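Open question from group meeting: does this chain pack into something compact, or does most of it stay loose? Before anyone orders reagents, we agreed to write out a predicted structure and look at it together. Recording both the input and the output here so the notebook holds the full record.
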Amino acid sequence: MPFLYKRLLLTALFLILAVYRAASPSTKHIVIFEPPALEPFRRLMNAIGYVETMNNPALYNPAEQAAGIFQIRPIRLEDYNRRTGSKYTMKDLYDTKISEKIFIYYANLIGPYNPELIARNWNGSGHMTKYYWKRIKEYL
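Structure tokens returned:
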């Protein structure tokens, strides 16, 4: 009986090691995936872009001299350039990435936790910003 017991124990141990070896990876590599970028303003930017231009970066409003997807006016562009040391022109605002960069700069001054304040400040000031926010919320 002890011989049979030893043989059974060795067979079980052999099977356990074989299964463990088969289940373990043959190489010792760690694969790290790059996480998606955090974009706390993405939904708000999409909503504002839709309300302003239906997300068309090629639009220009001659009445306000506003350009690009977010309809950035010359005074805001001048303020942005002065604060950041940039030298963007109104023609640059047709590039969505540049317009997003400018929007994010001003949104960051408020922070990601108050989209209403960001949207209303983006639109300007006064009581009409309440209506603007109502329109933005439809697309959030």
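Observations to bring back to the group:
The radius of gyration is 29 Å.
Strands lie at 60-61, 66-67.
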